[in-house]
Amino acid sequence: MLPLVIAFAVLSWLRLGPAHAITVPTSPPSDAAAIDPSLVSVSIEFFAFPGYMQLRGTSKCLANLASLRGAQPAIRIGGTTQYVEHHLSCRHGDSVRANSHYHTLGSLRIRGRDRATYDANLQAPVNYTVASPADAPTSLTYGPPFFTLAAQFDGEVTLGLNRQLNNQANSLAAGLRAKESMMNLFAIELGNEPDLYASGSPIAAGAAWSQSADISSEAKWFTEMAPSVSASGSRLTTCD
Ligand SMILES: *[C@@H]1O[C@H](CO)[C@@H](O)[C@H](O)[C@H]1NC(C)=O
């Protein structure tokens, strides 16, 4: 370690003036605050979630996090919202960047979309078609097996349901089914990235979309859905 510190000090002295050595302790000081062991949590893209469940690496990764932290990581299943206006072959990685509120991606404009519709008769977890395996679907349906899979997680699960498509009855049916199927259901999220909805979004009903429009929409959905969905203690939340 010493030669490295010296080299750094010499370089710094030459270019920037005197160096300041910082010693990073290998163990926390006795007066350090304790961090909640469940702080590490994982978000899994909604449409890709059943695929992740088929990879052994997924459970291995979650188990590693659990043993490192001493607590099961909480899991949020949600997302799948980015709609690239001029180019539909948005790579999955791009969606992740867009989740960090990149409203433009190079020259491409991105508009928020919740796209998933629950189909109580669908025998598969999800159903969608994409032109290339790297694409995110522009619309998809999901069925009861989606919740059976999500019930397999050891950690608490927050489930993202659709608001953008303005089909409250559909999201309610999904929420009730999730509640029945998932003992590990912690919360239901109503709508993904509502800051990216626009006047063309069904939820906007032809009016301009704004923060205040979103606040009223959230309040309305939460009020209308909470009595049945949160009866068992599940919480309602939203993702911005
Ligand atoms: C799955 O989705 C495709 C369109 O992507 C549709 O044609 C097909 O009927 C759907 N299958 C089921 C079982 O819903």
UniProtKB/TrEMBL annotation:
Residues 1-21 form the signal peptide. InterPro entries: GH79_Enzymes. The keyword Metal-binding does not apply. Keywords: Signal. This is Glycoside Hydrolase Family 79 protein.
